[in-house]
Design brief:
CATH class: Alpha Beta
Number of strands: 8
Strand content: 15-25%
CATH architecture: 3-Layer(aba) Sandwich
Number of helices: 12
Mean pLDDT: 96
Helix content: 25-40%
Protein backbone atom coordinates (compact mmCIF):
# COMPACT_ATOMS: atom_id res chain seq x y z
CA UNK A 1 0.00 0.00 0.00
CA UNK A 2 1.52 3.35 -1.02
CA UNK A 3 2.10 6.02 1.65
CA UNK A 4 -0.68 8.52 2.25
CA UNK A 5 -0.37 11.97 0.72
CA UNK A 6 1.08 14.38 3.32
CA UNK A 7 -1.17 16.91 5.00
CA UNK A 8 -0.29 20.47 3.92
CA UNK A 9 -1.33 23.45 6.01
CA UNK A 10 -4.19 25.24 4.13
CA UNK A 11 -2.39 28.57 4.23
CA UNK A 12 0.67 26.97 2.66
CA UNK A 13 -1.08 25.05 -0.14
CA UNK A 14 -1.24 27.96 -2.61
CA UNK A 15 2.39 28.82 -1.86
CA UNK A 16 3.45 25.26 -2.64
CA UNK A 17 1.41 25.23 -5.84
CA UNK A 18 3.02 28.49 -6.98
CA UNK A 19 6.48 27.14 -6.20
CA UNK A 20 6.05 24.04 -8.34
CA UNK A 21 7.02 25.89 -11.54
CA UNK A 22 10.36 27.12 -10.16
CA UNK A 23 11.20 24.72 -7.32
CA UNK A 24 10.35 21.19 -8.47
CA UNK A 25 9.95 18.47 -5.82
CA UNK A 26 12.67 16.32 -7.36
CA UNK A 27 16.17 17.71 -7.96
CA UNK A 28 18.42 15.51 -10.07
CA UNK A 29 22.20 15.83 -10.60
CA UNK A 30 21.70 17.59 -13.91
CA UNK A 31 19.84 20.43 -12.16
CA UNK A 32 22.61 21.35 -9.70
CA UNK A 33 24.05 24.07 -11.94
CA UNK A 34 20.66 25.72 -12.28
CA UNK A 35 20.27 26.08 -8.52
CA UNK A 36 23.85 27.25 -8.04
CA UNK A 37 23.17 30.09 -10.47
CA UNK A 38 20.56 31.63 -8.16
CA UNK A 39 21.62 35.04 -6.84
CA UNK A 40 22.37 35.59 -3.13
CA UNK A 41 19.53 36.89 -0.98
CA UNK A 42 19.26 40.59 -1.96
CA UNK A 43 17.54 41.58 1.30
CA UNK A 44 20.51 40.95 3.60
CA UNK A 45 22.20 44.27 2.86
CA UNK A 46 19.05 46.25 3.57
CA UNK A 47 18.50 44.36 6.82
CA UNK A 48 22.06 45.11 7.92
CA UNK A 49 21.44 48.82 7.28
CA UNK A 50 18.09 48.87 9.10
CA UNK A 51 19.54 47.13 12.14
CA UNK A 52 22.58 49.39 12.23
CA UNK A 53 25.05 46.53 12.45
CA UNK A 54 28.40 45.93 10.76
CA UNK A 55 29.00 43.45 7.94
CA UNK A 56 32.50 42.51 6.88
CA UNK A 57 33.51 39.97 4.23
CA UNK A 58 36.48 37.85 5.24
CA UNK A 59 38.59 35.04 3.84
CA UNK A 60 39.12 32.35 6.48
CA UNK A 61 41.02 29.05 6.45
CA UNK A 62 39.05 25.92 5.68
CA UNK A 63 39.93 22.26 5.68
CA UNK A 64 43.46 21.51 4.40
CA UNK A 65 44.24 25.25 4.34
CA UNK A 66 41.71 26.09 1.63
CA UNK A 67 40.39 29.66 1.48
CA UNK A 68 36.71 30.08 2.36
CA UNK A 69 34.51 33.12 1.94
CA UNK A 70 32.80 34.26 5.14
CA UNK A 71 30.70 37.14 6.40
CA UNK A 72 31.07 38.53 9.91
CA UNK A 73 28.07 40.39 11.29
CA UNK A 74 28.65 42.22 14.57
CA UNK A 75 27.72 45.33 16.52
CA UNK A 76 29.21 48.55 15.21
CA UNK A 77 30.30 49.49 18.71
CA UNK A 78 30.71 46.30 20.77
CA UNK A 79 30.68 47.15 24.47
CA UNK A 80 31.48 43.74 25.94
CA UNK A 81 32.47 40.31 24.73
CA UNK A 82 29.30 38.71 23.38
CA UNK A 83 28.05 35.33 22.23
CA UNK A 84 29.00 33.91 18.86
CA UNK A 85 26.89 32.12 16.28
CA UNK A 86 28.32 30.05 13.45
CA UNK A 87 25.69 29.99 10.69
CA UNK A 88 25.70 27.23 8.06
CA UNK A 89 23.45 27.61 5.03
CA UNK A 90 21.21 25.01 3.41
CA UNK A 91 21.16 23.64 -0.11
CA UNK A 92 21.33 19.86 0.16
CA UNK A 93 25.15 19.88 0.27
CA UNK A 94 25.14 20.78 -3.44
CA UNK A 95 24.17 24.47 -3.72
CA UNK A 96 23.47 27.58 -1.64
CA UNK A 97 25.61 30.34 -0.17
CA UNK A 98 26.27 31.98 3.18
CA UNK A 99 23.53 34.60 2.81
CA UNK A 100 20.70 32.08 2.46
CA UNK A 101 18.63 32.24 5.64
CA UNK A 102 21.10 34.27 7.69
CA UNK A 103 18.72 37.22 7.83
CA UNK A 104 16.58 35.50 10.45
CA UNK A 105 19.48 35.66 12.92
CA UNK A 106 20.78 39.18 12.27
CA UNK A 107 18.41 40.87 14.75
CA UNK A 108 20.31 39.11 17.55
CA UNK A 109 23.40 41.15 16.66
CA UNK A 110 21.48 44.31 17.53
CA UNK A 111 19.53 42.91 20.49
CA UNK A 112 22.14 40.72 22.18
CA UNK A 113 25.50 41.85 20.87
CA UNK A 114 25.94 38.53 19.08
CA UNK A 115 28.67 38.07 16.49
CA UNK A 116 27.56 35.91 13.56
CA UNK A 117 29.96 34.20 11.20
CA UNK A 118 28.34 32.81 8.05
CA UNK A 119 30.61 30.65 5.94
CA UNK A 120 30.67 29.38 2.36
CA UNK A 121 31.75 25.81 2.96
CA UNK A 122 32.72 23.93 -0.19
CA UNK A 123 30.02 21.97 -1.97
CA UNK A 124 29.62 18.42 -3.25
CA UNK A 125 30.10 16.65 -5.58
CA UNK A 126 33.31 18.57 -6.39
CA UNK A 127 34.14 18.54 -2.69
CA UNK A 128 32.84 15.31 -1.22
CA UNK A 129 32.82 14.22 2.41
CA UNK A 130 34.62 15.07 4.64
CA UNK A 131 35.30 18.47 3.06
CA UNK A 132 32.00 20.27 3.85
CA UNK A 133 31.84 19.34 7.55
CA UNK A 134 35.58 19.83 7.99
CA UNK A 135 35.30 23.29 6.41
CA UNK A 136 32.59 24.11 8.94
CA UNK A 137 34.66 22.76 11.82
CA UNK A 138 37.58 24.89 10.61
CA UNK A 139 35.27 27.93 10.74
CA UNK A 140 34.38 27.08 14.35
CA UNK A 141 38.08 26.77 15.20
CA UNK A 142 38.76 30.11 13.50
CA UNK A 143 36.02 31.80 15.54
CA UNK A 144 37.45 30.42 18.77
CA UNK A 145 41.04 31.33 17.87
CA UNK A 146 40.04 34.88 16.83
CA UNK A 147 37.54 35.36 19.67
CA UNK A 148 39.31 38.39 21.15
CA UNK A 149 39.51 40.14 17.79
CA UNK A 150 35.90 39.33 16.96
CA UNK A 151 34.51 40.20 20.39
CA UNK A 152 33.26 36.66 21.07
CA UNK A 153 33.22 34.73 24.31
CA UNK A 154 34.68 31.40 23.07
CA UNK A 155 32.64 29.49 25.65
CA UNK A 156 29.38 30.85 24.19
CA UNK A 157 29.48 29.82 20.52
CA UNK A 158 26.30 28.28 19.10
CA UNK A 159 26.22 26.46 15.77
CA UNK A 160 23.09 26.94 13.69
CA UNK A 161 21.84 25.92 10.29
CA UNK A 162 18.94 24.88 8.13
CA UNK A 163 18.59 21.71 6.06
CA UNK A 164 22.07 20.65 4.95
CA UNK A 165 23.49 23.40 7.14
CA UNK A 166 21.68 21.97 10.14
CA UNK A 167 23.08 18.53 9.41
CA UNK A 168 26.54 20.09 9.20
CA UNK A 169 25.91 21.92 12.49
CA UNK A 170 25.10 18.58 14.14
CA UNK A 171 28.23 17.08 12.55
CA UNK A 172 30.42 19.94 13.78
CA UNK A 173 29.02 19.45 17.28
CA UNK A 174 29.93 15.76 17.18
CA UNK A 175 33.44 16.61 15.95
CA UNK A 176 33.84 19.14 18.75
CA UNK A 177 32.99 16.49 21.33
CA UNK A 178 35.26 13.94 19.66
CA UNK A 179 38.22 16.32 19.42
CA UNK A 180 37.82 18.03 22.76
CA UNK A 181 36.82 21.43 21.37
CA UNK A 182 36.45 24.14 20.43
CA UNK A 183 33.42 24.02 22.70
CA UNK A 184 29.91 24.34 21.30
CA UNK A 185 27.36 25.89 23.68
CA UNK A 186 24.28 24.90 21.69
CA UNK A 187 23.11 23.50 18.36
CA UNK A 188 20.17 25.02 16.48
CA UNK A 189 18.93 22.55 13.86
CA UNK A 190 16.12 23.60 11.49
CA UNK A 191 14.98 20.76 9.22
CA UNK A 192 18.30 18.96 9.66
CA UNK A 193 19.66 16.65 6.95
CA UNK A 194 20.91 13.83 9.17
CA UNK A 195 20.47 10.40 7.57
CA UNK A 196 21.97 9.29 4.25
CA UNK A 197 19.98 6.06 4.20
CA UNK A 198 16.80 7.82 2.96
CA UNK A 199 14.61 4.95 4.18
CA UNK A 200 12.28 6.56 6.74
CA UNK A 201 8.53 6.65 6.41
CA UNK A 202 8.67 10.38 5.76
CA UNK A 203 11.22 9.82 2.98
CA UNK A 204 8.85 7.35 1.33
CA UNK A 205 5.89 9.69 1.85
CA UNK A 206 7.54 12.83 0.44
CA UNK A 207 8.23 11.42 -3.01
CA UNK A 208 7.31 13.56 -6.00
CA UNK A 209 5.56 16.14 -3.80
CA UNK A 210 6.54 19.21 -1.81
CA UNK A 211 10.04 20.67 -1.74
CA UNK A 212 13.20 18.53 -1.58
CA UNK A 213 11.65 15.09 -1.91
CA UNK A 214 13.16 11.62 -1.69
CA UNK A 215 14.84 11.92 -5.11
CA UNK A 216 16.38 15.26 -4.18
CA UNK A 217 17.63 13.71 -0.96
CA UNK A 218 19.27 10.88 -2.89
CA UNK A 219 20.88 13.44 -5.19
CA UNK A 220 22.35 15.41 -2.31
CA UNK A 221 23.60 12.45 -0.29
CA UNK A 222 25.06 10.71 -3.33
CA UNK A 223 26.92 13.87 -4.27
CA UNK A 224 28.38 14.01 -0.77
CA UNK A 225 29.14 10.32 -0.20
CA UNK A 226 29.23 8.67 -3.62
CA UNK A 227 29.05 4.88 -3.50
CA UNK A 228 29.26 4.95 0.29
CA UNK A 229 25.74 6.40 0.61
CA UNK A 230 23.54 4.02 2.56
CA UNK A 231 26.41 1.64 3.30
CA UNK A 232 28.40 0.83 6.39
CA UNK A 233 31.34 3.19 5.80
CA UNK A 234 29.78 6.55 6.64
CA UNK A 235 31.15 8.73 9.43
CA UNK A 236 28.81 10.14 12.07
CA UNK A 237 30.10 13.63 11.31
CA UNK A 238 28.79 13.24 7.73
CA UNK A 239 25.45 11.68 8.72
CA UNK A 240 24.80 12.41 12.42
CA UNK A 241 21.86 9.98 12.54
CA UNK A 242 24.53 7.27 12.50
CA UNK A 243 26.16 8.45 15.75
CA UNK A 244 26.23 5.54 18.21
CA UNK A 245 26.65 7.77 21.25
CA UNK A 246 24.97 11.17 21.56
CA UNK A 247 25.69 11.65 25.25
CA UNK A 248 27.46 14.77 26.42
CA UNK A 249 26.26 16.97 23.56
CA UNK A 250 25.16 20.59 24.18
CA UNK A 251 21.50 21.67 24.28
CA UNK A 252 19.72 21.33 20.97
CA UNK A 253 16.78 22.97 19.24
CA UNK A 254 15.18 20.89 16.48
CA UNK A 255 12.41 22.13 14.20
CA UNK A 256 10.86 20.37 11.21
CA UNK A 257 7.67 20.32 9.15
CA UNK A 258 5.42 17.29 9.19
CA UNK A 259 5.34 17.27 5.37
CA UNK A 260 9.05 16.98 4.66
CA UNK A 261 11.57 14.22 4.12
CA UNK A 262 13.53 15.10 7.25
CA UNK A 263 10.59 14.74 9.67
CA UNK A 264 11.27 11.25 10.98
CA UNK A 265 15.04 11.52 11.27
CA UNK A 266 14.67 14.79 13.18
CA UNK A 267 12.20 13.25 15.63
CA UNK A 268 14.45 10.19 16.02
CA UNK A 269 17.52 12.34 16.69
CA UNK A 270 15.70 14.36 19.35
CA UNK A 271 14.54 11.14 20.99
CA UNK A 272 18.09 9.84 21.06
CA UNK A 273 19.35 13.07 22.61
CA UNK A 274 16.74 12.72 25.37
CA UNK A 275 17.62 9.06 25.89
CA UNK A 276 21.27 10.08 26.21
CA UNK A 277 20.44 12.51 28.99
CA UNK A 278 20.64 15.60 26.80
CA UNK A 279 18.52 18.72 26.57
CA UNK A 280 16.56 18.97 23.34
CA UNK A 281 13.58 21.07 22.31
CA UNK A 282 11.65 19.55 19.39
CA UNK A 283 8.95 21.17 17.24
CA UNK A 284 7.10 19.39 14.43
CA UNK A 285 4.99 21.90 12.51
CA UNK A 286 1.76 20.35 11.18
CA UNK A 287 1.46 20.71 7.43
CA UNK A 288 4.81 22.43 6.97
CA UNK A 289 6.74 21.50 3.81
CA UNK A 290 10.52 21.83 3.58
CA UNK A 291 11.58 25.47 3.73
CA UNK A 292 8.09 26.82 4.49
CA UNK A 293 9.69 29.34 6.86
CA UNK A 294 11.61 30.86 3.94
CA UNK A 295 9.01 30.49 1.19
CA UNK A 296 6.02 31.73 3.25
CA UNK A 297 7.46 33.83 6.09
CA UNK A 298 4.20 35.71 6.67
CA UNK A 299 2.15 32.55 7.19
CA UNK A 300 0.89 31.70 10.66
CA UNK A 301 2.94 28.49 10.74
CA UNK A 302 6.16 30.23 9.72
CA UNK A 303 5.66 32.98 12.28
CA UNK A 304 5.10 30.37 14.99
CA UNK A 305 8.21 28.46 13.93
CA UNK A 306 10.34 31.61 13.92
CA UNK A 307 9.00 32.63 17.33
CA UNK A 308 9.85 29.22 18.84
CA UNK A 309 13.35 29.35 17.36
CA UNK A 310 13.90 32.89 18.61
CA UNK A 311 12.69 32.07 22.12
CA UNK A 312 15.17 29.18 22.38
CA UNK A 313 18.02 31.24 20.95
CA UNK A 314 17.22 34.12 23.31
CA UNK A 315 17.42 31.78 26.30
CA UNK A 316 20.73 30.42 25.06
CA UNK A 317 22.23 33.85 24.42
CA UNK A 318 21.10 35.17 27.79
CA UNK A 319 21.87 32.03 29.79
Amino acid sequence: MPPAAPYIDPELRPVLEALSSTVPPSITPGMIGRFRALAPDPTVGGLVDRLGIAHEDRTIPGFADADLGASVFRPVQPVTTGPGLLYLHGGGMIFGNRFGGVGGYLPFVASHGAVIVAVDYRLAPEHADPVPVEDCFAALAWMAARSTELGIDPARIIVAGQSAGAGLAAGVTLLSRQRGGPPVAGQLLVSPMLDDRNESESARQIDGVGVWDRTSNETGWTALLGDRRGGGDVAESAAPARARDVGGLPPAFLSVGSAEVFRDETVAYASRLWAGGGAAELHVWPGGFHGFENFAPASSLARAAAAARDRWLTRMLEG
